[in-house]
């Protein structure tokens, strides 16, 4: 079935000038960009976005990191795109993310409190619907 997923290029990706490279990989795979916006996320949006991580030790450092600069938010569409984008992105930990993936090719561990792994992708249909509603309420 055709799905939509929320993709974020996190502040590390924007700072490093990797927005074009990351969108290129999504488009080259054959997925469709439905909406794209560069914006600064506020605390309230990020608290909702990361609600499932409430209470985890990395939540505050994660929110601070996500507020350290602009984020590129995108809605991406295609058959099985939720799973497909997660496969393009690679494992959360960039040290072990497979070469060929966005994280495996372009990210590394900087020894910080938060894993800086360039991108976020929704992890299921329910979270995709929730996250798209948060970031793109008009869609
Ligand atoms: P993301 O898929 O956006 O979801 C939560 C984010 O928190 C994750 O990517 C990483 O950036 C970060 N993260 C997840 N687990 C850890 C961890 N154990 N330590 C630090 N940061 C983490």
Structure notes:
ATP binds at residues 10, 58, 86, 92, 103, 117. Homotetramer. Residues 2-139 form the Nucleoside diphosphate kinase-like domain. It catalyses: a ribonucleoside 5'-diphosphate + ATP = a ribonucleoside 5'-triphosphate + ADP; a 2'-deoxyribonucleoside 5'-diphosphate + ATP = a 2'-deoxyribonucleoside 5'-triphosphate + ADP. The structure is a single chain. By secondary structure, the chain is of the alpha+beta class. 40% of the residues lie in helices and 20% in strands. The chain contains seven helices and four strands; from the N terminus they run E-H-H-E-H-H-E-H-H-E-H. The chain has helices at residues 11-15, 19-29, 43-49, 59-66, 81-89, 102-106, 125-135; strands at residues 2-9, 32-39, 71-79, 119-121. Strands 2-3-1-4 form a four-stranded antiparallel sheet. The longest helix has 11 residues, at 19-29. The protein starts with a strand and ends with a helix. The mean pLDDT is 97. Bound molecules: adenosine-3',5'-cyclic-monophosphate. Residues 53, 58, 62, 92, 114-115, 117, 120 line the site of adenosine-3',5'-cyclic-monophosphate.
Structural class: alpha+beta
CATH class: Alpha Beta
Integer tally of domains: 1
Distance between the termini: 19 Å
Q: Which strands sit side by side, in order, in the main sheet?
A: 2-3-1-4
Q: Compute the gyration radius: what is it?
A: 14 Å
Going by CATH, what is the homologous superfamily?
A: Nucleoside diphosphate kinase-like domain
- Give the strand content: 15-25%
Q: Estimate percent helicity.
A: 40-55%
What is bound: which ligands?
Answer: adenosine-3',5'-cyclic-monophosphate
Oligomer: single chain
The best one-word shape is globular
Report the sheet with the most strands, covering strand number, pairing sense and barrel closure. 4 strands, antiparallel
Helices, by number, come to: 7
Poorly predicted runs of 5 or more residues: none
| CATH-defined architecture | 2-Layer Sandwich
CATH topology: Alpha-Beta Plaits
Strand tally: 4
Q: Would you list the SSEs in sequence order as H and E? A: EHHEHHEHHEH
């Amino acid at each position: 079935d055709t799905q939509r997923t929320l993709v974020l290029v996190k502040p590390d990706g924007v700072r490093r000038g990797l927005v074009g490279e990351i969108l290129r990989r999504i488009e080259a795979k054959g997925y469709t960009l439905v909406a794209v916006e560069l914006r600064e996320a506020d605390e309230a949006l990020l608290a909702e976005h990361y609600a499932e991580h409430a209470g985890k030790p990395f939540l505050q450092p994660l929110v601070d990191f996500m507020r350290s600069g602009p984020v590129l938010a995108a809605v991406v569409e295609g058959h099985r795109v939720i799973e497909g984008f997660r496969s393009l992105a690679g494992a959360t930990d960039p040290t072990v993310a497979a070469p060929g993936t966005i994280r495996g090719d372009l990210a590394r561990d900087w020894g910080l409190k938060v894993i800086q792994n360039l991108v976020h992708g929704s992890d299921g249909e329910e979270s995709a619907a929730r996250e798209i509603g948060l970031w793109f309420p008009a869609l």
